[in-house]
Amino acid sequence: MVNALRALIEKYSIKNYFVFDMSLPQMLSYRAAGLIFFTRQSEYEKVPQLYEDAAGVWLDSFINDDWINADLIQKHFDAGKKVCVVSPELHGRSPFELWKKIKPIDNPNLFLCTDLFQEAEKFFVGD
Question: Among 107, 46, 113, 35, which residue's Cα sits nearest to residue 77?
Fold first, then answer.
């Protein structure tokens, strides 16, 4: 799968991408292939694996997102990482409290992974 993905990325000259949400062995494969990958930090994975080699971190809260805050996100920015926040609705919770916490962060290296893209656009950008 890694080689097929790399071939497509090269064929279509894709530059703006990252792969994420994989096991450590898969992450090692993506790293070996020279693909851009994000590592995960969660309430279960407090120290992201392969952090030094990852282009970014996806913050994934499976049960409670109280630990995700502007200081944590800034810490990753300061380390030269991009950050993708997994929206709580992907784990069956309301996203709005977390969205309120991250809305003030004005940084082009902050992303939101959500199924509620229209609601997120209204919330973060407006009508």
Answer: 107
Could you identify the residue written with the tokens 């805050």? 69
Mark out the alpha helices in the chain (DSSP H runs): 2-11, 24-32, 70-78, 96-102, 117-124
**In the 8-state DSSP scheme, what is residue 38?**
E
Token pair of 62 as six digits: 């499976």
CA distance 61 to 57: 13
Burial class (CB in 10 A: 0-12, 13-18, 19+), 66: exposed
AA identity, residue 56: G
Task: Quick: pLDDT tens for 84-116.
Answer: 999 999 999 999 999 999 999 999 999 999 999
Q: Note if the pTM is more than 0.90.
A: yes
Report whether 82 contacts 58 (CB < 8 A): no
Residue for token pair 């030269």: 80
Cα 64-65-66 angle, rounded to 5 deg: 100
Beta-bridged to residue 53, according to DSSP, are none
